[in-house]
Amino acid sequence: MKQLRARWTAFRSRSHTFAEHHRSATIVITMLIAAILLIFLPRIPPLNAIQGANPWYDAFANAGVFVLLAMGLNVVVGLAGLLDLGYAAFFAIGAYTYAYSNSPFSGLDLPFFPMLLVGAAVAAVFGIALGAPTLRLRGDYLAIMTLGFGEIVPIVFVNSDPYTRGTNGIGGIYRPEALPFFGEFSPLTSFNYMVVMIFIVTVAMMLLYRLHDSRIGRAWMAIREDELAAAANGINTVLTKLLAFALGATTSGLAGVFNASKLTIVSPDQFSFSVSFTVLAMVIVGGMGNIWGVAAGAFIVYLIQVVLLKQLNTIAETINLPALDLGPIHFDLAKINFTDYQYLLFGIALVLMMLKRPEGLFPSQARRAELHAAEDLGANDPALVGALGEAPGSDELTGGSEGGS
Amino acid sequence: MTAAMATGGADEPMLVMKDVHTYYGQIHALQGITLTVNKGEVVTLIGANGAGKTTTLKTISGLLHARSGSVRFEGDDITKMPAHKLVERGIGHAPEGRRIFSRLTVLENLQMGAFSRPKADIQPDIERVFNLFPRLRERTGQLGGTLSGGEQQMLAISRALMSEPRMLLLDEPSLGLAPILVAQVFETIKEINSQGTTVLLVEQNALQALSIAHRGYVLQTGEVVLSGMADDLRQNETVRKAYLGED
Question: Could you give the number of structural domains in chain A?
Fold first, then answer.
């Protein structure tokens, strides 16, 4: 037993070193393993008892959209520390870009894969356009601004009827062209969407890790920690923040294009505040700042949301608990629609999370270290605990000022 | 010793501020500051709270910009230049309240200080600051936020040095430190200066500051009210009463 554990530890440290030196290779290998699991798990129990393989692949592809969104928002919120509450706006911009390029509404039928990049680029332009005047704001003010922008975008789409068909949205969007070996894209071949999604996520992850480990990544971290100090250390804070914003928008736009091609319809109600909020919750649950963490967090949260909650309904019906009737209180487990309680459960999960594990499920090292530094060093030293929580620069003068005379 | 320093070297002083007015929104914080710093000097700004000492440093390092007047560094007009450009030009600023990156390790803080330089070149500078502050060497992997106040101050100064500044702006390095540490920090500032870095030092602890400085300026409500050789200022009646706490 002991030997086994020693071997496991050795394996872990070795794979850690490998992962640090060959970041991209690690991502590719891990994503390949993930892909194999995603392909075969739905065909074996217990997953195949829940739903057929195609619905599973469909759910995985949709989850991938949120994985992308969460990874993008993680750059803005987790790395650069800019709270963006209107992130769905860029998702919408990407989706509408694809709708214009591939639908009977516009009469265009442009190829899907290049459009992924175009949609991302268009979203990036909007990201910069929004970021340039607003990133001078800090903290709460920036959050409110982005919240406003997130509300404005769907409203513009609703009200620009001649250009967007208003609330009806743009329908009949063309699916991607058939892939060699994989064949057509259709509602019955969700497998194809899933494979494309895995590919996109892999590439996005490699690029994001590159940035994370680069000078820019360090600059984001510095800004998140202390913007003034970052500026004093030679970081161009305006440009760096703008880049984070643009990059987040790019990822979001990419996800939008994919989503539009899969749903074949875009309408303003798909991009409400609840999307921005959900993605933010995913980032927080996953572990702000850790790219793998938020990707896994988004995947898990999405599946809980769309598969597990539905599953709870079936389970509740099958166990058929007798209804509880206590005068005014009437409680029937079988009649509860758990999917209605999605946001309630989300809220509870977030509250518990903040109380019990504020660093997220898969925290980045820095955050974990920060939130548990006091424990690691022995929390008995009140001065130390205070020093961690306090903003630096209190005006107190001690000793020194009268010390000399 | 100071006279030789002040007159020697280039034809224009390293830093020249001429009639600088800086505002925080409506608040008129600097009301026409004029001062010079010569290459190789330690110059200190002393004055009460709200006199404009910190604002002066921020205006020099580009964290704030003057609404009128001019700031010149090594012969170039830097009045409107953003902070990150000034770091590249050789102005290092250790801002008030230390402001170290509390979630990054000591080493990462130092690397961040060298952000404007190629990463390959910074090892000698890390060695240099570790020699100045041996305590930091023991704390290399520790998070900035878990350091004691004195260590944080050492880190803040070290971080500012990592950009290889020709001029170092220090804002209240003695703030919140025990007297024994204050003396040690001031010793190190002297040492940094003797290694060739010009220092502009803001201090509430006027006596200590004047003891290591060549020259000093006394600020009051955004204006220079008195200036001169550090030794003269220390003897000056008004200064003694107002800032050195002597009767």
Answer: 1
Q: Do A236 and B145 touch (CB under 8 A)?
A: no
Is A390 in the B-facing interface, judged by CB distances under 8 Å?
no
Q: Is A367 on the interface with B (CB under 8 A)?
A: yes
B115 vs A49, more confident: B115
Lowest mean pLDDT among A60-69, A344-353, B24-33: A344-353
Q: Tell me: pLDDT of A390 over 70.
A: no
Give the closest residue to B143 by CA, choosing from B152, B131, B130, B154: B152
Closest partner CB to B104 (pick from A225, A234, A394): A225
Q: Do A366 and B93 touch (CB under 8 A)?
A: no
Q: Which residue of B has its CA nearest to A225?
A: B101
What pLDDT is recorded for position A380? 44
User: What is the residue whose two structure tokens read 């690691």?
Assistant: A376
Among B101, B87, B89, which Cα is nearest to B156's? B101
A–B CB contacts, 8 A cutoff, strictly below: 130
**Alpha carbon distances (Å) from A359 to A261, A276, A292, B101, B103:** 35, 20, 14, 18, 13
Q: Range of B101's domain? A: 2-242
ipTM comes to 0.85
Q: Is residue A298 part of a domain?
A: yes
Is B247 domain-assigned? no
Chain B residues in contact with A218 (beta carbon < 8 A):
111-112, 115
Question: Which residue in chain A is spatially nearest to B162 when comparing CA positions?
Answer: A233
Contact, B59 vs B48, CB < 8 A?
Answer: no
The encoded tokens of residue B202 equal 């803001």
- Cα dihedral A139, A145, A147, A152, rounded to 10, equals -170
pLDDT digits (tens, 9 = 90+) for A227-280: 899 999 989 988 999 999 999 999 999 999 999 999 888 999 899 898 998 899
Residue A385 belongs to some domain of the structure: no
Is B55 within the bounds of a domain?
Answer: yes
A23 touches chain B (CB under 8 A): no
Q: Would you call A398 and B176 a contact, using CB atoms and an 8 Å cutoff?
A: yes
Around B39, how many Cα atoms within 13 Å sit in the side-chain half-sphere? Answer: 14
- Closest partner residue to B163 among A234, A401, A405, by Cβ? A234
The predicted-structure confidence for A131-142, as pLDDT tens digits, reads as follows: 888 877 877 888
For residue B130, give the CATH number of its domain.
Answer: 3.40.50.300
For the cut 90, the answer to whether the pLDDT of residue A94 exceeds it is yes
Instruction: Choose from A221, A228, A233 for mutation: most chain B CBs within 10 A.
Output: A233
For the entire predicted model, the pTM comes to 0.81
CB contact under 8 A, B99 and A394: no
pLDDT 10s digits, A115-159: 899 999 999 999 999 888 887 787 788 889 899 999 999 999 989
| Residue B175: closest C-alpha in chain A | A397
Nearest residue of chain B to residue A374 (CA atoms): B146
What is the spatial distance between Cα B110 and Cα B115, in angstroms, rounded to a whole number? 9
CB contact under 8 A, B83 and A231: yes
What tokens were used for B25? 């929104």
Q: What is the CATH number of the domain that holds A153?
A: 1.10.3470
List, for chain B, all residue ranges whose pLDDT scores fall below the cut of 70: 1-10, 244-247
Q: A105 lies in which domain range?
A: 52-321+330-380
Structurally, how many domains does chain B consist of? 1
Say if residues A313 and A339 touch (Cβ distance below 8 Å): yes
| Residue A287, domain member (yes or no) | yes
| Domain membership flag for residue B158 | yes
- Contacting residues of B for A397, CB less than 8 Å apart: 175-176, 204
